[in-house]
């Protein structure tokens, strides 16, 4: 039988939930206490969305900074080096 057709056991689900919860920052885990799998999934989605917003914000700020720099300046070189 393929792995797609195999059902996940309660023990496996519990292990996956624990692994997922360990990926959340301590502050979010602490506020959740002993959460249900559904609450954990919602909190994980919220956290991923907040990370996405943070990446977008940082990208916008970096683009604005790069637009103000001379492309041959030492500061622009430092920023380019960070992305290599």
Automatic annotation (TrEMBL):
A GO biological process held by the record? regulation of growth
Q: Which domain of life is it from?
A: Eukaryota
**Transmembrane helix: is it a keyword of this entry?**
no
Which Pfam family, an example, fits this chain?
bHLH_ILI
Keyword Transcription regulation in annotation:
yes
Name a GO molecular-function annotation: protein dimerization activity
UniProt keyword terms in alphabetical order = Transcription, Transcription regulation
- Tell me where in this chain the BHLH domain is found: 1-51
Q: Which PANTHER family match?
A: TRANSCRIPTION FACTOR PRE, TRANSCRIPTION FACTOR PRE5
Entry protein name: BHLH domain-containing protein
Natural source organism: Zingiber officinale (Ginger)
Q: What is the lineage of its organism?
A: Eukaryota, Viridiplantae, Streptophyta, Embryophyta, Tracheophyta
